[in-house]
């Protein structure tokens, strides 16, 4: 059971939402359904749907609503529809057939038009959590997913932050904010899922500089 819990994005999101300091950094998240998707599109204009289990950007789809047009983007392919019903029917054929969740879309800071997010990896070494890496992942041109296995480019977090956030001192400040948030999340995850020994946190920073937690991986690559 523990392995299945570790793999379930919804359970990990629920654990993080239980902490008031962390909850404000988590995009609105709901289990996938037609009504939930419609409501979130009307509220946010853009959402991302992703399988409850799995990684590497597999099955992740961006869905948008703007000026009466419904669209979704899977990898580099985008399709548009004049009605929600037509879009939803097509979307269900494009999904990979697993249980999904819907996450509020975040308009990320970019470098040369390409969105960037960050992976922070920590491991437990002799009872103490230590940082192993903090890197930026720059999406391949034309894609919205940043996964390296989908052609993303890895940068140091310092370089990614420095190139995507242009006000002085922002990179150093955001790196420290990310570490502080990671330290809080480690405690939450460890108490919710005893026995974990490694964690990978996927963070995004929006155009206004706010840090968002997209996902926590218990078997980070």
Could you describe the 3D structure shown?
This protein is of the alpha+beta class and 221 residues long. 33% of the residues lie in helices and 34% in strands. The protein folds into two domains: 9-25 and 107-217, D-amino Acid Aminotransferase, Chain A, domain 1, CATH 3.30.470.20; 29-104, Dna Ligase, domain 1. It is built from seven helices and twelve strands. The strands form two sheets. It has a six-stranded antiparallel sheet with strand order 1-6-2-3-4-5, with helices on both faces. Strands 7, 8, 9, 10, 11 and 12 form a six-stranded antiparallel sheet that branches.
Summarize the structure.
Helix content is 33%, strand content 34%.
List the topology elements.
Layout: H1 2-7, H2 9-17, H3 20-23, E1 29-31, H4 34-44, E2 46-51, E3 61-66, E4 69-74, E5 77-81, H5 84-94, E6 100-104, E7 110-111, E8 114-125, E9 128-138, E10 153-156, H6 157-164, H7 170-192, E11 198-205, E12 211-217
Antiparallel strand pairs: 1-6, 2-3, 2-6, 3-4, 4-5, 7-8, 8-9, 8-11, 9-10, 11-12
